[in-house]
From TrEMBL:
Taxonomic lineage: Eukaryota, Viridiplantae, Chlorophyta, core chlorophytes, Chlorophyceae
Gene3D superfamilies for the chain: Leucine-rich Repeat Variant
Entry-linked InterPro entries: ARM-like
Official protein name in the record: Uncharacterized protein
Top-level taxon of origin: Eukaryota
Length: 140
């Protein structure tokens, strides 16, 4: 960012390279597993300045799309909070990774707590389902 100017200053070469990279990320983040991967490598903290300050409309919109895509995944919540994602990206009902996606990603990210989180969620859901069945049985 240059002194006295508003917005992010990129050379034409930097802008062109960033457009290509962020454009690829836009399409990669259409898949849940890639949403997790992109968030875990810290892309949000790099994309936020592009979204907020970049003068190039295409680059800014692509950064916005990538941020929106990674914000759709519940497992990215803490990473996004840590990177101070603007609140307009918060999703009221985020999607979750499937069991197969969790299994694959725990191989790629062995220190992650994905498997424990997934198992805890499955346990909570089955307990909630059991409670609903018990309520129905009592009504009968």
């Amino acid at each position: 960012k240059s002194e006295g100017k508003k917005g992010l200053s990129l050379t034409p070469e930097q802008s062109e390279a960033a457009k290509r990279i962020v454009g690829c990320l836009k399409f990669l983040t259409m898949v849940n597993a890639n949403r997790y991967r992109v968030a875990q490598i810290g892309a949000a903290s790099l994309l936020i300045p592009l979204y907020e300050e970049c003068m190039d409309t295409l680059l800014r919109r692509n950064a916005q799309t990538v941020l929106a895509n990674i914000a759709m995944l519940a497992e990215n919540g803490q990473v996004l909070l840590d990177s101070k994602l603007p609140e307009e990206f918060l999703v009221p009902v985020p999607m979750r990774l499937s069991k197969d996606e969790v299994n694959q990603l725990t191989i790629e990210f062995p220190t992650s707590t994905l498997r424990e989180s997934f198992n805890q969620l499955a346990k909570e859901r089955s307990e909630a389902a059991l409670a609903q069945v018990e309520q129905l049985v009592k009504k009968l």
